[in-house]
Design a protein that fits this description.
InterPro entries: DUF5947. It holds the Pfam family DUF5947. By secondary structure, the chain is an alpha+beta fold. The protein has two domains: about 25-70, no CATH class; about 75-210, no CATH class. It has six helices and ten strands. It has helices at about 5-15, 55-60, 85-90, 125-135, 165-180, 185-205; strands at about 40-45, 50, 70, 75-80, 100-105, 110-115, 120-125, 150-155, 160-165, 205. The strands form two sheets. The chain has a seven-stranded mixed sheet, with helices on one face. Strands 2-1-3 form a three-stranded antiparallel sheet. The protein is globular and about 50 Å long.
C-alpha cells in the first residue's frame, strides 16, 4: 500500500480548517427523535421541569392531568383590553416591571415570577390584589394550571399583557440569563427582550376575552 507523505496530506489539513462541525441536533427527551427549532414541551408534574419533545410524544400526554408529564399547550394571545392600574401593580410588590403568573393546583394559589440573571425568581404575591385583578379580567379564570401563564411587560411606556404557554415565559428567562452582563444587564439583553416581545406580538392573536372566561382564581 502506498503511504501518504506529509506534503500530500497538507491540502486536506488546510481544507479541514474550513469544515465547521454540525451543531448538535436537539432531540425529543422521550423517544430521541430530532427536533425542529420550534417544538412542543412537556411539564414534569413532580419537578415542574420542562422537557423538549416531538409532536407524537406531546399528543400522547394531551389531557392527562394526573400523568407524570403534562402537555404544554401552544398559546400566545395578546390581552389588549387587560385592566391593571399602576396602584394594582404596585400592590403586587414585584421588584421589576416584568413578570409572569402561574396558577398552581397543588399549592392552591397563584405564583408570581420575575426573570433575573439567576433564572426565574419567585416573588411573594398579595392575594387581595390578585383576586381583584381576576374579577376585573375574567380571561384569567381560563388559565390552565401549571402550563399557562399571564405574562406582563410594563417596561417603558407601552404596557403589554399576554396569555401564553409557560414555555414562552421560560424562553424569555433563558434569553435574559444568556445575555445579561454586569449590574444593569448591558445593551444586548435589553435588545433581546425587545426582540422577544416584538416577535410575541407578531405571532399572537387577540384574546377572545369572554370566550375564555372561566371561574375566578
Amino acid at each position: 500500500m502506498k503511504s501518504t507523505s506529509p506534503a500530500d496530506q497538507r491540502p486536506w489539513a488546510v481544507l479541514r480548517q474550513f469544515v465547521r462541525p454540525r451543531p448538535p441536533v436537539e432531540r425529543c427527551e422521550l423517544c430521541g427523535l430530532g427536533l425542529a427549532a420550534e417544538h412542543p414541551h412537556l411539564l414534569e408534574s413532580a419537578t415542574r421541569q420542562l422537557h423538549c419533545c416531538c409532536d407524537a410524544c406531546s399528543i400522547l400526554f394531551s389531557g392527562q392531568h394526573e400523568a407524570r408529564f403534562r402537555r404544554v399547550p401552544s398559546r400566545a394571545e395578546s390581552l389588549d383590553d387587560f385592566l391593571l392600574s399602576d396602584e394594582q401593580w404596585e400592590g403586587l410588590h414585584l421588584p421589576i416591571n416584568l413578570a409572569f403568573f402561574i396558577r398552581s393546583t397543588a399549592a392552591g394559589r397563584v405564583h408570581a415570577y420575575f426573570p433575573s440573571p439567576a433564572g426565574a425568581t419567585e416573588s411573594l404575591l398579595t392575594f387581595e390584589t390578585w383576586d381583584q385583578l381576576a374579577r376585573e379580567n375574567p380571561v384569567l379564570g381560563a388559565m390552565e394550571p401549571e402550563v399557562e401563564a399571564l405574562l406582563v411587560n410594563r417596561l417603558g411606556e407601552n404596557h403589554t399583557y399576554y396569555y401564553v404557554s409557560i414555555d414562552e415565559c421560560y424562553k424569555l428567562v433563558g434569553l435574559i440569563r444568556m445575555h445579561w452582563r454586569g449590574l444593569s444587564g448591558g445593551t444586548a439583553v435589553w435588545a433581546e427582550i425587545a426582540r422577544f416581545f416584538a416577535g410575541l406580538k407578531e405571532r399572537s392573536r387577540p384574546s377572545g376575552g369572554a370566550l375564555h372566561a372561566g371561574p375566578e382564581l
